[in-house]
């Protein structure tokens, strides 16, 4: 009887009905997206069930693993308030220039050993200089030949020429996060604009590369700001969306932010899935800190995660991720999922 009642409640819920509309190809509105973010805790499981219908339609029970290497750390002239690598940060982090080709290849080896589909090469800074561009161009073909990994490059602001060079050397996609909504952006950064980030994504798309772009929740934004970012990602038709959960680092301007509950994180993931149902959705930095024991629930919405550490913060052991995925009955795959 309890099982029957639960089934009836799930299929009668407004989130089930909204999921059906999305499955029929209808976009949800900004108002509906904000309603998702304001869902009560009592409705959260029904919301997750609706989001899972969308995830399952496009990705089944597959999980894609990503591995990132901090290929250049610190030394950044930008003033992004959340970042321990910015010029304003007093956080004690490692600072070094571009890693050698051998070091980047060793990172690719580890990515392959951990079952990753994609190797993410990330550098700090406003934009890549010629030396950094050349280093990426030289190592990407070697990584692909030796380890058969997809390559995602995160190199800062890109002009048309640099985007085309990345495409030519074999990069598959470029990461450049919007980070937050347009109206909130000047509260977290002043050395470049939201429009600069959008322009980079448009340059990347024009070069024929896939887009990886997401953001960070918990930086003092409003629900409207978060929805605005999600809608912009939909407009840009972003293939991959990493969602970070603000891991406030002592010594950064936003060190007091990041007051999130696991439920806040789950609601944000659900909203992003309803707005961008066919995009790969990744639980990224801060998931261990904020989702805590509810991490498994996040994979009923997201279909991807970083395995290992982040740029300047630690992740949980890969074995914990593998166990979580297995316990859910999901499967790690390095191939694209073909929806039924």
TrEMBL record:
GO terms for biological process: biotin biosynthetic process. InterPro entries: Aldolase_TIM (IPR013785), BATS_dom (IPR010722), Biotin_synth/BioAB (IPR002684), Biotin_synthase (IPR024177), Elp3/MiaA/NifB-like_rSAM (IPR006638), rSAM (IPR007197), rSAM_sf (IPR058240). The keyword S-adenosyl-L-methionine applies. Residues 57-287 form the Radical SAM core domain. NCBIfam families: bioB. Belongs to the radical SAM superfamily. Biotin synthase family. Homodimer. This is Biotin synthase. It comes from Aureliella helgolandensis. The gene is bioB.
